[in-house]
Each structure stands twice: as C-alpha cells, then as structure tokens.
Amino acid sequence: MVPIQEPDRFSPDGQTPQIQLTALTLALLGITFVADVWLPAEVPVGPVYGALLLLVLWEPRPNRVFLVAGVATLLVLTELVVSEPGPFNGIRAVNAVAGIAGVWLIAFGIQRYGHRSAERHRALRDAEDLRYALDQSAILATTNVKGDITFVNDTFCEISKYQREELLGQNHRILNSGLHPKDFFKEMWRAIAHGQVWRGELRNRAKDGSIYWVDTTIVPFLDQSGKPYQYVSIRYDITERKATEARLRDQASLAQLGRMAAVVAHEVRNPLAGIRGALQVIGQRMAPEATERGIVTEIVNRVDTLNAIVEDLLLFARPRPPVIRAVTFDELIAKLGTQLANDPAFAHIDLDMAAADAQLHVDPEMFTLVMLNLMNNAAQAMKGHGRIRVSLDRDAKWVNVRVTDAGPGMTPEIQARLFEPFFTTKARGTGLGLATARRIIESHGGTLTLDCPPTGGTVASIRLPTVHTYN
Ligand SMILES: Nc1ncnc2c1ncn2[C@@H]1O[C@H](COP(=O)(O)OP(=O)(O)OP(=O)(O)O)[C@@H](O)[C@H]1O
Ligand SMILES: [Mg+2]
Predict the structure, then answer these.
(1) In the list 158, 248, 397, 464, which could disulfide-bond 446, CB 3.0-4.6 Å?
(2) Across residues 163-168, what is the average pLDDT?
(3) What's the per-residue H, E or C state across the chain?
(4) Hey, what domains does the chain have and what are their CATH numbers?
C-alpha cells in the first residue's frame, strides 16, 4: 500500500502566516510596553499583556505562547525598573505582579487548549484519511437497522451498475442473485443484530443481470444501550478469484471424468457393440411374423441410445485437440442448414441464418457440433415451433456468432448451473451439450456464454479470436 503523504503544516509554505502572528503579538507587546512607560502609573496596563496573549490561540504550535509570555514578563519587569520612583510605586509593583501572574495563567491555559485542539484536529484528519483510503479500495455501504441502504460509495455503484439514487432507501435484496438460501441471510442478520461482526462471501446480481462475488464484512455500530443503530459493510470484488476456483474445480473433476471415460470406453462400449450385433443376428433369424421381433428392435434402439450417451461422455471427457483451419462462415452455415433440413425436430422451426462474408479459424467438425448443440437447445426450448436466428458480427480482435431463440429463457438458478456436466432439465437430456460446447470453444481460445435479455428468449454467444495460431 502506498502511504498517503501527510500535508506538513510546518512546511516553509505553511509557516509564513504563523510566524507573522507571533511577530504581530510581539510587536503589539512592544507598543503596550511603550504606552505603559508613558502612561501615568495609575493606569493598569497589565491586563493588556494578558489579552494580547490570546492572539496566540490561532498559533498552531501551542508552545510558542511561552515565548510570548516570557517577552511580556520581561517587558513588565523592565517597565517597573525604568519607571521613575513615585507615590504609586507600590501600586505599580502590585499591578506588575498581577499582570505577570495573569500572563502565565493565560499562557498555560492556551498551551493546554492548543494541545487538545491540535490532537482533535489530527484525530479528525486521520479519520478522514482512513475513510478516503477505504473509499479508494473497498465497496462501501451503510444500512440502517431496518436494512435500508443509507450510503453507498462510487465503487459500490460501479460494480452493481445502479445509480446511487436507485440504491438509497432500498433493501440489499435488490442485489440478491438467488444463490444463497434464506437461512444464510437469516443467520447473517441474527449475528449483526446481536452486535457481532459478520464475514462471508456473497454472490450478487448487478442491474444488468451480471453476477459478481464480494468478500463481505458487516460491522454493526451499537448505541449506548448496546443496540445496533447502523451497519457498515466493507466488500471486495472476488469475482475473478471465484471464477478461477471454479475453473480449477472443473479441471480436477474433468481429469477424473477422463479417467472414468477411458474405463467406460473399454468396459462398456465394446460389450455394447457385441450385444447389439448379437441382437441383430437373433432378430434376423426370427420368423418375419414373430411378435418378439418388435421387442428385439426396441432393445437395439435402447442400446443405440446407451451408446450415444457413452459417445457424448467420451466426447466431453476426452476431447481430441482441435485441428483449426480457416473456413468461411457461409460454408459452415450451409453445411449446418443441410444437416438440420433432414432433422424432424426442426421441421417447424423457421431458421434465419444471415449470410456473412467472414472467415473463422475453427475445427469445422467441432464447431458444427457446438452449433448443433446450441440449435437443438433453442429448438427444444421453443418446443419445436418458432424462429431461431444465427448472426455474426466482428471487430478487430473477435468474431461473435450468436444463436438467438424466442423460447421462455432461463431462471437464474438454471443459468447458474448451465455448464455443469450432467445438468439437465429435460427428461431425455444428458446435460453434456453445453459443457461439451464450452470445452470445445475454450480449446479454440474463445468463450461461450448464454444470456437471457429482458426482451425474452435466450442468446448463446460464441466469441472466437479472429487470428489463431495453428496447431
Ligand atoms: N436456449 C435455451 N433456452 C432455455 N433453456 C436452455 C437453453 N439452452 C440450454 N438450456 C437449459 O440448460 C440445460 C443444459 O443444457 P445442455 O445442452 O447442457 O443439456 P441438455 O440440453 O439438457 O441435454 P443434452 O444437450 O446433453 O441432450 C438444459 O436442460 C436447459 O434447461
Ligand atoms: Mg442440449
């Protein structure tokens, strides 16, 4: 952390007016001294010395008052010595002693007051500095006992993508992403309402629907009766760390899955092929009118489904490295169109595949597989009826291919788990479609995301680098 330079009040710049103040007081003391000498003895000038000392109240170095008091004492004593002897000498002496006593009393008073106010000033400035430093580094908010937001700093607005006015007076529920169960928040409120500091990691949702994670500390501030009157929350953005953790977890489970897939390939796929072959032979040997023929065909179909699942698993768990080459988007789209034209699931789907004169650097077979997965999901979401739009746009660095459907979209809970292997909401789904698609796109150096715009439907976006290092 870079320490903030404390502005030096005694720097040459800051010193000029203070020297002038002390000098001014000394000059006024001099004038008072001259007046004291010239004025008749019965005029009590002593209190003026004390009064002048009050000027030093504005002097930031309280000890200076002793210098001024010393000079005042010297002047009073000098005046006493140089004045001509007369009938009022006794009164003069009493005046002088009272004046000196007054001067030193005031001097000590000023010095004490000066020290205290300097300390208060420093404490106030330290608190301001601390708040400034915190404001620069953390996401800050204060909440009243009811849970209404009473203050947010700029960083809070930046990460939540809300305007300050939209947040003030609102409950923190406005940011709830739906991940944490109710008990989680109940426990949090229980702790802070009892005056305990709460620490935890929260997943929040920004105004635009994006998700962010924050490491959160909530500090309750208690009144004299020990009851909280406000809560201050200090948060730090840990979205990236969470993503890395998830990636590492995925990689670990993928490695494990890869080992399992090797066993499945050997121990399941080969016997399945054997069973299928044997069943076909049995079926062929049966009399054409035998009712059992239908049963055999059904078993063969089930074996085929099982085989397809094993193939999906192998593809996901042990993908081959992509063989990337330059292909035009139109070429890929044309092939995809031909494949879908023969698919009954797309018989009532209106395909809007805009031609785009663009080149992609992909493994065509793998890319087509990704597109098929996305298109299948879109068609299934729309229950086989409606329009699917495939579009492309690009900038200097990236090509974006989008598959947009007019389906029902997804709940936040589904969105959070989309890419988990084996996560499916379909009776006959394996839940490997999107997990495989993302793995393939990432092996191309790109990203795959699914969003649900407020206008409805789902948009799957593939982002690929325009330039690729060939393997
Ligand atoms: N376009 C979409 N609209 C609505 N929900 C979708 C869409 N795409 C995916 N989903 C949701 O995401 C889940 C996971 O999709 P994924 O493709 O990984 O598996 P699946 O389609 O269920 O099964 P599989 O593709 O393996 O046959 C789906 O079950 C569905 O709930
Ligand atoms: Mg799917």
Answers:
(1) 464
(2) 96
(3) CCCCCCCCCCCHHHHHHHHHHHHHHHHHHHHHHHHHHHCCCCCCCHHHHHHHHHHHHHCCCCCHHHHHHHHHHHHHHHHHHHCCCCCCHHHHHHHHHHHHHHHHHHHHHHHHHHHHHHHHHHHHHHHHHHHHHHHHHCEEEEEECCCEEEEECHHHHHHHCCCHHHHCCCEHHHHECCCCCHHHHHHHHHHHHCCCCEEEEEEEECCCCCEEEEEEEEEEEECCCCCEEEEEEEEEECHHHHHHHHHHHHHHHHHHHHHHHHHHHHHHHHHHHHHHHHHHHHHHHCCCCCCHHHHHHHHHHHHHHHHHHHHHHHHHHCCCCCCCEEEEHHHHHHHHHHHHHCCHHHCCEEEEECCCCCEEEECHHHHHHHHHHHHHHHHHHCCCCEEEEEEEEECCCEEEEEEEECCCCCCHHHHHHCCCCCCCCCCCCCCCHHHHHHHHHHHCCCEEEEECCCCCCEEEEEEEECCCCCC
(4) 12-135 (no CATH), 138-237 (3.30.450.20), 243-317 (1.10.287), 325-465 (3.30.565.10)
